[in-house]
C-alpha cells in the first residue's frame, strides 16, 4: 500500500479475515491481498494491517510504521485465558505485559516495562461499557513458544508471574511502540484456556469464537479509533 494511503490511526491484527471484513464494511481496496501484511484504509483515515503471527512480526510492523508515525495503534489479537474468571469470549484490556518473548530486548533493556498508552485504553474501555460487554484488565505474558502446555516448569513459572492471559505479540507491540514513540494499545479476545484439557484450542472451538465474537472485536476497535480521530484527542500526552 502506498505510504500516502495509510491513515492516522491503525488497527493491527493477526487475521486476514479481519482485513476482509473491514474492507467489505467500508467498500475499500485491500492492498497486498495475496502477500504478507495485507492492508486497507477507509475514507475516515483508519487503516487495518494483518501483520501475521508472533513477536518478530509485531516488531517489524511497529518499525515499518515509523515511516509516517500514526497518531495511535491498536492491536486486536487473541490470547489464552489463564485465570478461572477469564472465560472464552471475554475481552482483556491489558494494563501491561511480561516480556517473555525476547524480541523486545533488542529495543529496550529488560527492566523497562511493557505498557500501553493509558488514554487510548480509556477510549476502548468506554466502547466496551457502551456495548454492555464484560471485560477484564490485567497483565499478559507474551512468549515466542508455540507449544508449552505440557512443560510443567513453564506452567509453574506462569503461575508465579500471575498473568491473566498469554499471547505472542502484546509485549512486543508495547515496547517497540514505546521505543519508536508511537501510542499503542491492545484489545485481546480470549480464544482458549490452555491450562485446562477442555479449554485447549481446536479448529472447532476457534471457529466458534470467530463466529460469535470476531465482528464485535473488530467493531470495538473501529469505533474506538474513529472516535479518537473525530474528537481530535491527543493520545501521546507526554515527552519520550
Q: Could you please describe the fold and organization of this structure?
A:
This protein has 240 residues and is of the alpha/beta class. It has one domain (3-231): Nucleoside phosphorylase domain (Rossmann fold). The protein is built from six helices and eight strands, in the order E-H-E-E-H-E-E-H-E-H-E-H-E-H. The chain has a five-stranded mixed β-barrel. Helix 3 packs across helix 6. The model has no long low-confidence stretch (mean pLDDT 93).
Kindly list the characteristics that best describe this protein.
240 residues, alpha/beta, Rossmann fold, 6 helices, 35% helix
Quick description:
This protein is α/β, with parallel strands linked by helices and 240 residues long. 35% of the residues lie in helices and 22% in strands. A five-stranded mixed β-barrel has the order 4-7-6-5-8.
List the helices and strands and how they pair.
Layout: E1 9-13, H1 16-26, E2 39-41, E3 46-50, H2 55-64, E4 72-81, E5 91-100, H3 118-130, E6 135-143, H4 152-161, E7 165-167, H5 170-179, E8 184-192, H6 203-231
Parallel strand pairs: 1-3, 1-4, 4-8, 5-6, 6-7
Antiparallel strand pairs: 2-3, 4-7, 5-8
Helix pairs in contact: 2-5, 3-6
Low-confidence stretches: none
The topology string of helices and strands comes to EHEEHEEHEHEHEH
CATH names the topology as: Rossmann fold
CATH architecture: 3-Layer(aba) Sandwich
What's the CATH C level? Alpha Beta
Strand order of the largest sheet: 4-7-6-5-8
In CATH, the homologous superfamily goes by the name Nucleoside phosphorylase domain
Q: Outline, from the CA principal axes?
A: globular
Gyration radius, in Å = 17 Å
Number of E-state strands: 8
- Which structural category do the helix and sheet elements fall into? alpha/beta
Q: Kindly state the mean pLDDT as a whole number?
A: 93
Given the structure, what is the number of helices? 6
Helix percentage range: 25-40%
Number of structurally distinct domains: 1
Question: In this structure, how is the largest beta sheet organized?
Answer: 5 strands, mixed, barrel
Tell me the strand percentage band. Answer: 15-25%
Alpha-carbon distance between the termini? Answer: 29 Å
Amino acid at each position: 500500500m502506498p505510504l500516502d494511503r495509510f491513515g492516522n490511526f491503525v488497527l493491527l491484527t493477526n487475521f486476514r479475515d479481519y482485513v476482509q471484513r473491514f474492507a467489505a464494511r467500508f467498500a475499500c481496496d485491500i492492498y497486498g491481498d495475496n502477500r504478507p501484511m495485507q492492508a486497507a484504509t477507509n475514507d475516515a483515515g483508519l487503516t487495518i494491517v494483518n501483520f501475521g503471527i508472533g513477536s518478530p512480526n509485531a516488531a517489524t510492523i511497529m518499525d515499518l510504521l515509523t515511516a509516517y508515525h500514526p497518531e495511535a495503534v491498536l492491536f486486536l489479537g487473541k490470547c489464552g485465558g489463564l485465570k478461572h474468571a477469564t472465560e472464552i469470549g471475554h475481552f482483556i484490556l491489558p494494563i501491561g505485559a511480561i516480556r517473555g518473548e525476547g524480541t523486545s530486548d533488542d529495543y529496550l533493556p529488560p527492566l523497562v516495562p511493557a505498557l500501553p498508552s493509558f488514554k487510548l485504553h480509556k477510549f476502548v474501555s468506554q466502547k466496551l461499557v457502551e456495548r454492555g460487554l464484560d471485560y477484564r484488565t490485567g497483565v499478559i505474558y507474551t512468549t515466542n513458544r508455540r507449544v508449552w502446555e505440557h512443560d510443567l516448569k513453564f506452567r509453574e513459572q506462569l503461575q508465579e508471574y500471575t498473568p491473566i492471559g498469554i499471547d505472542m505479540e502484546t509485549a512486543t507491540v508495547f515496547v517497540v511502540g514505546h521505543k519508536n514513540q508511537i501510542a499503542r494499545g491492545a484489545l485481546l479476545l480470549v480464544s482458549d484456556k490452555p491450562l485446562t484439557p477442555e479449554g485447549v484450542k481446536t479448529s472447532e472451538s476457534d471457529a466458534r469464537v470467530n463466529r460469535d465474537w470476531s465482528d464485535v472485536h473488530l467493531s470495538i476497535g473501529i469505533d474506538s479509533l474513529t472516535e479518537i480521530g473525530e474528537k481530535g484527542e491527543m493520545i501521546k500526552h507526554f515527552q519520550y
